[in-house]
Specification:
2 copies of one chain form a homodimer. With 240 residues, chain A is mainly alpha-helical. Helix content of chain A is 68%, strand content 3%. Chain A is elongated and about 65 Å long. Chain B binds a DNA duplex (30 and 30 nucleotides) through helix 3.
DNA sequence: TCCATTATATTGGTATGCCAAATTTGAATT
DNA sequence: AATTCAAATTTGGCATACCAATATAATGGA
């Protein structure tokens, strides 16, 4: 474990808030009260409050007190980051296919050149898993960047980074290393690129969708565990 | 202003990291060094470090030091929340239309019922702006929830909440109050609902796209300032 | 020379104490 | 009884001091 103490305190405070049924706008117990309650110094409670403040759950006002800013859900209480890899891929499929379609309208020659460079890098770095992975990330994020929309890039980045935080993905990633799937995905990337160069929005959407469909399929084959429930959407194509 | 000092220190540290060109994995200067550099106590630097840690930018290891966890972009450096309302709406249009299409596959009768209730609420609460606004939020987020995908709901929620943090939106919102646009948007919502009920994915996508197109159009009319650059995408329909 | 062991220094972790802003209280005044 | 204003209290802000874990340097034996 060896987790920093302020986090532990912070989680305890969240539970305390839930238990005492505080509503948005309500005043929280003071730092000193929590300190005594948990048997720690006020410094630690203060750090925990900062954590909650950064998470936008509370608002701290000097001389007045701290106030509940948004309702605490059980999800926020524990770790949200550990969603299944299939759920993550599905989200990426839905969102990134649209981002690719959007990018097809706004992509510039410079963007296309950058993508080309990344594609070349991917094909030349098939041996180094780390390099190939970085290039993979670049490819997807460059497309999001080509939309010229900060929030779309931000969304794509957030989803990608979640992948690396996901514990189950780590395990699956080990097996992907051994396989030769990066070669297959390279073809996928090439097709997405071709559609973008033609500025074909629907083609780009389709290609990106199919690419992530293939990734899901691969992951499915590699995982010996039972597949989580996809509600019949795993292999469904929204284009149909 | 009256912002809490640790935030200020945290931003300064981010700039300092960028200026010194630290890479992911590199070791940061110690808390004591920053404390002396900024002329504050180590406590404040420590609080700033906690802020960066919560933001997943750094990792703090007792007895060893703190390390850069992910590359700091200029966006994370300053306030990311203050993107233009049009950029935000464009992102919502791209993403939420796909989310609606996805939801059309997985939506349950219970979801549809909840949506119906929200629609009724919207039409009955046309006078109370606050209530109508809450219902509006519920409508959009219920659809995201109907995808059964945590991350899609999370994404939609994030985008919506950004709206309220956006300073320019606040001003525009004042004028929307006076207008009767909520009535028009109610029709849009009804159409989205109809497509979802028919489980028509492409219809839902189209309807949601058009709805947010209308919102953009309204905002465009209401804002007397020159429109930001949309790169010809503002009125483009990816379905074309 | 190399490796294991111990001592020292470095670095983050926690507690205590005092300061400043905000709030509350209550006495004085009308 | 209502209002005003100042003193006291409450509450978060910040700094200093010491503790504990880690890393590094020094030491000594093989």
């Amino acid at each position: 474990m060896a987790e920093r103490l302020y986090r532990e305190i912070g989680e305890k405070i969240k539970l305390e808030i839930i238990k005492s049924k505080l509503k948005v706008g309500d005043k929280l117990p003071t730092e000193r009260i929590y300190a005594e309650l948990f048997g720690v110094s006020r410094t630690l409670v203060r750090e925990a409050f900062i954590m909650l403040e950064i998470e936008k759950l509370i608002e701290v006002k000097k001389g007045s007190g701290s106030y509940l800013k948004s309702q605490i859900s059980n999800q926020q209480s524990s770790k949200i980051s550990d969603v299944g890899p299939f759920e993550l891929l599905q989200a990426r499929q839905v969102l990134e296919s649209s981002i690719a379609a959007c990018a097809a309208h706004s992509i510039t020659k410079a963007d296309l050149n950058a993508l080309q460079v990344t594609l070349d890098l991917e094909s030349s770095e098939l041996n180094s898993v780390e390099k190939a992975n970085a290039a993979d990330r670049d490819f997807h994020l460059l497309i999001a960047k080509a939309t010229q929309n900060t929030l779309l890039l931000d969304t794509a980045t957030r989803l990608w980074d979640m992948r690396d935080e996901n514990s189950m993905w780590q395990q699956l990633h080990e097996r992907i290393k051994d396989s030769s799937y990066h070669g297959k995905w390279l073809d996928d990337h090439q097709q997405v690129f071709d559609q973008l160069r033609k500025r074909n929005a629907e083609g780009a959407r389709q290609a990106m969708w199919q690419h992530l469909e293939n990734v899901k399929q691969t992951l499915f084959e590699l995982s010996d565990t039972d597949a989580p429930n996809f509600d019949g959407y795993l292999f469904a194509n929204p284009q149909h």
